[in-house]
Write a structure and sequence with these properties.
This protein is mainly alpha-helical. The protein has a domain of about 60 residues.
Length: about 90
């Protein structure tokens, strides 16, 4: 642990930021899994709202600096590709 007071404070702030970032990334993963589950069902309206939610979470994470814009674009693209692949398999 650091000796200087300001360095100790930065350590605490960095840990709080890390936990917040982990929570955001976890919520994106959860939303994506929910969208994939809905892709198996026949409810198109629920699927559209789930995809929209994933897009919204990814875009907000980019604006907050949690995800890089290319990472968010990749996640969104792979999600839609997976959903389309599941639709073709039916």
């Amino acid at each position: 642990m650091a000796n200087i007071k300001s360095a100790k404070k930065r350590v605490l702030i960095a840990e709080a930021n890390r936990q917040r970032n982990v929570a955001w990334k976890s919520s994106i993963k959860t939303a994506a899994k929910k969208a994939l589950e809905l892709a198996k069902s026949e409810d198109k309206a629920a699927l559209e709202t789930a995809i929209s939610k994933v897009y919204q979470l990814c875009d907000k994470a980019v604006s907050k600096g949690i995800l890089h814009k290319n990472t968010a674009a990749r996640k969104k693209s792979r999600l839609v590709l997976a959903i389309k692949k599941m639709a073709e398999a039916k």
